[in-house]
Amino acid sequence: MKTAALIALCVAVPPVAHAQSGHKALDLGREHYLLADYRGALPFLSLGLDPQAGTIDSLWTTSVERLTDVLLVLRRDSLAATWLRWAMRVAPGFWVNEDAVPPAVVRAARAAQAFVDSTPQDPFVAAVRFDWPRTAPIGEQGLVRLASAAIPITARIGDSQFLRGGETRRLEAGSYDVVVSAPGYLPTRLTTEVLPGVTTVVDVSLLPENAALLTVVTRPWASLYVDGRRIDYTPVAGHRITPGPHTIRLLRGSEVVADTTIGALERQRLRLTWMPAPEPTGDARVDSALALLDAGDTDRGARRLEDLLGAGSVLPRGAGTTALARLAEAVWALGDRDSARACLRRLVEDDPFYAWPADIHPDLRSAYARERRRTPTVALRAVADTVITPANQMWPFEVAVGKPSDVRFSLRVTQSRPRDSVLGVLAVDSMSRVALPLRLDDGSAIAPGRYALIADIGGRVPSELLELVIERQPVETLPHRLPTFVEVPETRRGGVSRRTLLEAFGWGAAAFLVSASMNDRDLSGRSIPPAAALIGVSVTVATLVGRQDRQTIPDNVAYNATRRAELADENRRIAAENMRRLNAAPIRIRARRTP
Amino acid sequence: MMSRALLIGCCAVSPSLAAQSISLQGRVAFPLSSSQVGVAFDSTGRHRLIDRGGGVWGGLALEARLVGFSASVTGLRGGLGDSNGMFPARDGGEVSALVRYEVHPGIALETRHTTRVFVSAAGRQQWVAWGIGVLGSRKLGSEFLHASGAIEYLPVVRITGGVNPSFGIAADLALTVMPRRTPVVLSAGYRIEKFSFPDITNRAEQFEVLTLSLGVRMQRQDGRWTLTNRGGH
After folding, report:
1. Chain A neighbors of B140, CB-CB under 8 A
2. Which of A252, A409, B41, B158 is 20 to 30 A (C-alpha) from B62?
3. Which structural domain, as residue segments, surrounds residue A244?
4. How far is CA A357 from CA A219, A221, A321, A337, A570, in A?
5. In Å, how far is A506's CA from the nearest CA of chain B?
6. Total domains, chain A
């Protein structure tokens, strides 16, 4: 019966020898994976990921992604999460290629990252190694062994499992909290993963209860070695060391930055700093908090910065970004990676143009780069006051994004009737310098006025807006010519025409007769009313004076017309030249960022 | 009631009613009143008894124009002497109101109400006349030189202490000058009124007046009132 079962097992699972581990197993796993033979790929990928069988390279990283994808396809989400957590602990810089892997893998990776960040471990007290089986792991269980120690140590695994030094226990694959303790020593807590068929060996070296705390702060960063053992990049905060003499060495690459010996007393807090003189940020409260960090008081400095950056606080732009970066560095050194990443995300949102200083922690720099590529945000930046000649120059500005995005630019006229004009779409990876031609199709400058340059990356990310005030610079224009010739008279008096004569006397007579005809000569004593005669004569004279005909002088008219046309042509040429000069005139652009 | 009428009257000439122009003129008038007061018989036959009186009157005229309408009020007062020494000298005066509507460029309909009073040692006589007429006007070669003539029929004439006329007619001539680039208005006018009475009364009346006016004109342009003649008559 046992033989039959063994034969059946050999048929069901191809025998994968340990000799095939490493790259060869991963290559085989890749072939099965590309053929969508997920069940066939699983054992090869599981076997080939043994860190001790090969280097952690791009093939290893890709294989973790494939193994995760295989497990998700096979609906073994929990096991996929366990493998991802394990990979992130084994290779702290590990991250999936978000552009290549399926979205489900990205989501699982993010969840695993959050889990690992929230369950850090002290690598100087506890070391975890994984012993791979010689053949492909089978089943859903793995082994946990607590390495033997010179002192009587015990470990509690999960809620109910207890191990003594040297004991081994079989557990379901997954993540487990492990607390190792011994009388007279500081207990240590760690979280580790149990992989199917793999033996997880927990090796601890507990520190005595009277251990001292070492904090080392340097700028630029350096690798800290204590008694020849590499600890981490500086800053290192709250590292426990046994009382007594220790050698401290700081290395940057192969260069020894510092090499000294210290004597640690029981429970002593030792702070070693190699910091340059601080540069003021413009906010005294931030400067005070940064001084605490520079002095090695990481806890207090971080708390002070958290208070300053809390909800409702307003800090100057430069001070705010510096405070966020230093807070991220401090909480990273304290081991709170999750909070550090949150600070980095906020830093990206607040100022996508922020350039991470080269002299700060390389791991944190990598984390910043990763968070930046995950955080959707956009910002614009331009010189506050620029003068350009639109005909042959373009107005430069900069755009920065967090997550690589297609940025849609539009220019809005904000005066009179607001209207948008889409300028274009630009794919921006992180930062880009853009040149905007502020001219129309005919080459003339755009009209002076108030504009808004808007950058939008879609989604729920608010648009970024630069308010532009465009003014045309003074330009020397030509004055219009005034008439320099004297116009000759175009008409002359032509005397009184017969018609005018008839009209004048006719109206005068009518005016007189209307009233004279009503006069009663006997009654008034006058045959002709003198007033009526006066009005009649006045009408006649006025008509004659007002209606004097004038004769046109053709030669004079032609002369005046020619002179006027010449003047009009000259003024048209001057107007065209003035328009050309105005279009070629420099314009001044004042840019202001609008929140 | 009177205050309401006064208010309406004020509004009628108020600049706030957007009258296009308002002119105020000082006026000197030379009236000549000729009346046949009866007949006398002598050896040479039948003679008409004529009372003629002339004088100088002074007063003011206010005129407002609104689109095609114009309205004016005139007040004159002065003495009226006796040319033949048969009758006592008199004081006289008149107040007239005129409303005119231009039905066509150069042609207008008008109505006028006149109250004229003569006072002498013999007593007081008041004439109240209302007439309607037609006015023709034209420019005389220039926008600023203007002549007009009107014929009025006076259907209602009331005289205190006497017989009312059976027929009344009037003619009006005027010449107006508005010099360029000044708000000044100069005008000369001649009006003659003739009244017929029933034959039994042996009475006839003729009233003439030559008027010379000098005034200023204010026009509303772009919502503002300015002293100007721009825009002509």
Report:
1. 507, 539, 542-543, 546-547
2. B158
3. 212-274
4. 11, 10, 12, 19, 63
5. 12
6. 5
Query: What tokens does A469 get?
Result: 């005030």
Contact B190 A532 (CB under 8 A): yes
Of A518, A545, A547, the CB nearest to B171: A518
Name the stretches of chain A with pLDDT < 70: 1-21, 124, 311, 415-420, 422, 547-550, 594-595
Domain membership of residue A231 (yes or no) is yes
Which of A354, A372, A390 corresponds to the end of one domain?
A372
What are the CA-CA distances from residue A439 to residues A241, A410, A420, B105 (Å)? 68, 15, 16, 56
Please determine, looking at this structure, whether the domain spanning B20-227 carries the CATH number 2.40.128.100: yes
> Which of A310, A345, A372 finishes a domain?
A372
Cα A486 to its chain centre, rounded Å, is: 70
Q: Specify the 3-state DSSP secondary structure of A388.
A: strand
Contacts of residue A525 in chain B, CB cutoff 8 Å?
Answer: 34, 50, 52, 83
Q: Which amino acid is at A32?
A: H
CA–CA gap between residue A88 and residue A84 (Å, rounded):
6
Identify whether residues A268 and A308 lie together within a single domain. no
**How far apart are alpha carbons A153 and A146 in whole angstroms?**
9
How much is the ipTM here? 0.80
Selected for mutation to probe chain A from B46, B57, B140 (highest A CB count within 10 Å) is B140
Token couple for A369: 């780069």
Domain for residue A65, yes or no? yes
Express each pLDDT in A109-148 by its tens digit.
999 988 988 887 777 677 888 998 887 777 788 999 999 8
CATH number at residue A449: 2.60.40.10
Omega within 30 of 0 (cis) for the link into A220: yes
Q: Could you check whether the bond before residue A235 is cis, i.e. omega within 30 degrees of 0? A: yes
Q: In this structure, is residue A124 part of a structural domain?
A: no
> Could A523 and B32 be called an inter-chain contact, meaning their C-beta atoms sit closer than 8 Å?
no
Nearest CA in chain A to B139: A543
B188 neighbourhood in chain A, CB within 8 Å: 534-535, 538
**Distance separating alpha carbons of residues A563 and A575, to the nearest angstrom:** 18
- Burial of residue A146 (number of CB atoms within 10 Å: 0-12, 13-18, 19+): buried
Count Cβ atoms below 10 Å from residue A523 Cβ, excluding itself. 17
Task: Note whether A358 and A388 are same-domain residues.
Answer: no
Mutate to test the interface with A, among B146, B186, B208 (most CBs of A within 10 A): B208
**Domain ranges across chain B:** 20-227
- As a whole number, the mean pLDDT across chain B is 84
